[in-house]
Design a protein that fits this description.
about 120 residues, mainly beta
């Protein structure tokens, strides 16, 4: 999965400590985090830090790939998970997200996981 999202860049006012949105927005590209080979289990795995408990084709983690340009969100290190979604039991899922995604954007991305994988499980 790969997606590009328009997110407003937020600046902090050092005197008032209030966040004010700038007049422009910037796009953020996200992609699936690459799994790592687990020697003991002999399979490819993602570390959900205990938040996902059931294997599913719908489980995913999105990261911002490291880019050569400036990163207004400070998330382009390919290890910082911006959004993770996974199955925790039959018909129950968990979603974790962080800035710069809003709850609405994160939820919309997670819903796309159901549209293309209905017959996979």
């Amino acid at each position: 999965m790969q997606c590009s999202i328009q997110c407003p860049v937020v600046a902090s006012d050092p005197l008032n400590r209030e966040k004010k949105p700038e007049s422009s927005s910037s796009s953020l590209s996200l992609r699936n985090k690459a799994p790592r080979w687990h020697e003991h289990l002999q399979c490819w795995c993602l570390n959900f830090h205990g938040r996902v408990t059931v294997a599913s084709v719908k489980n995913f983690q999105l990261v911002a790939p490291a880019g050569g340009g400036s990163d207004p969100w400070g998330v382009g290190d390919e290890e910082t998970v911006i959004l993770q979604f996974g199955k925790i039991e039959d018909d129950a899922f968990t979603m974790d997200f962080r800035h710069p995604l809003s709850a609405f954007q994160a939820f919309a991305i997670c819903l796309t996981s159901f549209g293309t994988k209905l017959a996979c499980e």
